[in-house]
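The authors assume throughout that readers already know how a fold can be written as discrete tokens. The format is easy to grasp once an entry is in front of the reader. For illustration, here is how one protein appears when written out as sequence plus structure tokens:
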Amino acid sequence: MLSRPKPGESEVDLLRFQSQFLAAGAAPAVQLVKKGSRSGGDANPDRPPLQDHRDVVMLDNLPDLPPALVPAPPKRARPSPGHPLPEHEDPEERLNRHDKHITAVLTKIIERDTSSVAVNLPVPCGVAFPPVFHRSQGRQGKPATSGKRSIFAQEIAARRASEAKVPPVGEVASTLHPPEGAATCEALTPREQGSQLPWNSYSFQGPHLVTGKGLKSQEAEQEAQTIHEENVVRLQAMAPEEILQEQQRLLAQLDPSLVAFLRSHSRTCEQAEEKAMGEQRPGGRSAEVTGEEPIMPTSASEPRQEDKLEPGAPALALPVTPQKEWLHMDTVELEKLHWTRDLPPLRRQQTQERMQARFSLQGELLAPSVDLPTHLGLHHHGEEAERAGYSLQELFHLTRSQVSQQRALALHVLAQVIGRAQAGEFGDRLVGSVLRLLLDAGFLFLLRFSLDDRVDGVIAAAVRALRALLVAPGDEELLDSTFSWYHGALVFPLMPSQEDKEDEDEDEEPPAEKAKRKSPEEGNRPPSDLARHDVIKGLLATNLLPRLRYLLEVTCPGPSAVLDILAVLIRVARHSLESATRVLECPRLIETVIQEFLPTSWSPMGVRPTLSLHRVPCAPAMKLLRVLASAGRNIAARLLSGFDLRSRLCRFIAEAPQDLALPPEEAETLSTEAFRLWAVAASYGQGGDLYRELYPVLIRALQAVPKELSSPSPQPLALQRAASLLTVLTQLTLAAGSTTPEPRSDSAEASVSSTPSSITWTQVSGLQPLVEPCLRQTLKLLPTPETWSALGPVPTACLLFLDAYYQAWSQQPGLCPGDWLQDTERLSEELLLPLLSQPALGRLWDSLGCCSPLCNPQSCAPAPEALPSLVSLGCAGGHPPLSLAGSASPFPFLTALLSLFNTLGWIHKGLCGQLAAVLAAPGLQNYFLQCVAPVAAPHLTPFSAWALRHEYHLQHLALALAQRAATLQPVSATSAALYHGMALALLSRLLPGSEHLAHELLLSCVFRLEFLPERASGGPEAADFSDRLSLGSGGDLGCGRGTLLAQACQDLPSIRSCYLTHCSLARASLLASQALHRGELQRVPALLLPVAKEPLLPTDWPFLPLIQLYHRASDSPSGLPPADTVGTAMHALQWVLVLESWRPQALRAVPPAARLARLMCVFLVDSELFRETPIQRLVAALLARLCQPEVLPNLNLDCPLPGLTSFPDLYANFLEHFEAVSFGDHLFGALVLLPLQRRFSVTLRLALFGEHVGALRALGLPLTQLPVSLESYTAPPEDNLALLQLYFRALVTGALQSHWCPVLYAVAVAHVNSFIFCQDPKSLDEVKAARRSMLQKTWLLADEGLRQHLLHYKLPNSALPEGFELYPQLPPLRQQYLQRLISGVLQNGVSET
């Protein structure tokens, strides 16, 4: 036995093994079957076959070197077995022989024979060059040809036509003398030819498609005629049906383009022959047969009409007449001169159909009917060429032009369009929003791509368009003009308040942790996705800040581009703390801004515009630093310490504006911004060391303020600078008066908060004698409204400084209190009390209602181009004078005046009563009445949030002054009730950032006994008397509502503690708000307020303790109620009862259905709470208030309720709890029965009778204690068949009986009786069958009492024990109906089931 090869053996060994195997003659393990060669034979036929046909490896003829790597020869297809290829047959001939398709006839190519073609040699001439053929030589006197054909093609066609005028003799003869019975195809148009049947034309003139052209001259005509005769013979031998069938088969097989070519060729030949016949035989029959022209498209038919014009008339109205002497104008090409024609006449719009908006180069919207001259450059577009202006689509297309000027022009026009759209110039003339359309089209990223352009003009235009998109000019003007108001430096971030859904449940996280957690997720989101929700975030994701830094640092753009870039950076910094931090941390951005645009030395500038702003001080650069510092105290500290900002502040404040070697307006603005930046830093207690260095400068500037105020026409910029100076002094005075707070161990800023102030009281104590004359000077101008309005924020800034001055003075521990008490008395007697008696001040109070955004919600309407993803205040169009932001607004001055009065009343309680006389102003009283009235609050927009915040400051200060006065002297009942109603309304409206105000209201005004005059004026007794009148003499008052109200007034301190616990606000926000309002500068974290998504407290805040009890009980795993549940529930119910009885307008925003749901939560807390006697009495009193005739119609359980996903789900849970723990409690049962009234959803009744039938046995509420009338349950009749069947089943089975559920027993009997005796012919068959079945079963009932009730029911009557009246005997109609039904049953002998 042969062994197998082993590893390590060579090829010689393998060959030796093969020889041994062959010599042994053993049978192989595998049978090898060899197929035929692909080439059809053996590759080497001379070689003898091997023995046994075995596959043997031979190495004799193998070359020593491997073959070269060359491409293998192409493989040929192997023939199938039994069909070998012939050796000498051409494959092409075999393919043509088997090709049965019609295209085989058309694809055979025969080379053209040129042997008989005459060769024309050039004619010799005596000139250097042969004469050139001139086109006008053969075209004179001929009209211009038509159609879109080149001049060369037209000349060739004309020469061919002239050569074809002499046809062969045979053709002319056959044309002039056609045989009898032959049809003249040349005279028929294509349409007429299509109408002729093919079997009516058996004789043909000659071939048309096959002419023999290209063959030898002696064979051409003979071959063509032979083919023609074969075709004619074949056609004559076919039947008409076969001809049509073959025609359809050919058309289906041929290429459609080939068919079109053949038809066009035939049509051309026919037209040429028709023209020849018309010339030779003008009176022939063919002219009469041709009745219509071929149908052609509009583009081809118009030139043919132009060809038929008279030779003298021009084909087109060209602006100039072409002359033959002009170069290349000897032949007029009309289609190429079409663009030189005048524009078509402007189409007048006859309908209200929408048209595409077009804009001028200045961004103005052009009316569709406006007709403008063409030299304005507004007609360079293809669509609607007659209309002037460019559409947004065309402008977008132009921004991608290769010409830089066109790109810059398009961006400039788009910037103008955006600016006008934001200003509201387009109004309702456009459908939709321009900004939304642009952003959806990708305009934001188009601008970002344009910023990367290489051309400076395009970059400048892109920056201008970006500024127009992001920055609303009115917003910055508004925020700058109100900087010196009461807390005017505090602003809301201009970021969208509608966050993603995944962020809605994350409000409790600290902002720092939330930002860290979200940053990687936002980094993974594409910029386009971010931009849909927030435009600023989307831009920052495209590396906008490094690009802007590069433009400022490297490219050095022009002044306008620099101002635009700085404006964009300011808008980005106003977005949020995160965006401001990114601006600060962008590499070399702030360094470039400070070094290039806030230098300490520069060349003097003249009045003329400068060519570059680099190395020149720029006010927007200072403003950018101020906005960044407003975002947080850490940013302000980094700016002051890390960027050498102190030297810049000293440089621009120490020198007067007129000495800064800058244009006057720029110098005033730069100095103002420097003061504002210092004021922002001083708001954190920073920058106090500059006060000692700049003290002489500040005193000199403060001494110049009265002179500026006394000028006949004060400059607005100078007044803004004076107000900013006073604001700086106000913050520095607060810093000097703030005591060093005790460090907190749990505070992250304990070390920063404990830093003592660098300013002492002695350094600022001398400022008051300088500021008071300024205030006196301004108050002299109060009687003249025009001059008073021109003063701007200066009077407000003076009052706020005096407020801070006296507040800081009273906090100095080492000073004598008598000093500031005497000074406050002097100020009151000399200045403030005389001011209260001025009629001009009364006019300011009277104008509060006109300027209030709360009383005029339309003044806070969103801007026409407001977008959720791009927040702006919407102040582009300005504000009217009589508005909160207008020039004649009384809010800033009156708010500052009330703030000063509160401070003086807090310091000197003897002055509080005198100063509180300002609250008796009729204008203020009327304003409070308007605010308390049930009016819809304005929709929360960025501007409304800003405006309402300033209005709420005035309301809170007025209430605080009233509360201080109420502790010292009695307040009239009318005023006390008004103040209390105003406090309740303000508490539910306060926005984020006003946590301190909400806390103060809960501590003082809301639960103040002096503001509840009803307790001492017979309010409880009046409540008892009202309940007795409404319930009647038979009503069970139990513990009257008056007693409950009196007890609630006694428990008012406990009620306040309960609400302070359960209405607690976020601790961090509350501490920040307290630091801002109390002047604790070391604890102020930022001047950027939280995002105003919604008010601080919900509208149903009086029910918050009850709701929290319900949620805690639901979330408790042990099921045990929280501690002091009874006290919390009792205090909340007491307060709700007080509001329901004496302040119903405070709960008007809470629907009655929502109040009912909150009361039901009391019973769901646990199984014992509702059994407590105080809870029982309070809930019964509140339920009686809900069931009053004036409240009950407003009880709607089908509408969505705030804070509740589904009332049916709550009611199902309520039924389960009632069935488990009620034990027949009547109050619990009354709440179960109240939603079962007929007008409410049938789902509630089906839940009781279908799923909780066992609860019927516990519903033992007597009819006399039903809080609503029984008719509200029985009328109108029930129409739900399923519920009626459940009613009947509960009655028949005994689950519902009158002695344990009298109310629902009467209701079920009433509805079943109405149903079984209903004879409505429109009822469905199913309903009729159910009615008959139910009546038959009623007649056969064994319970005689139930049978009597169901058949003889008459009317509901809660005075009777059963709850309804009965017929002594059935009415005749019912008796007859019953007899008919019963007789039918007796006849059938069986009852229907």
User: Anything to note?
Assistant: The mean pLDDT is 81.
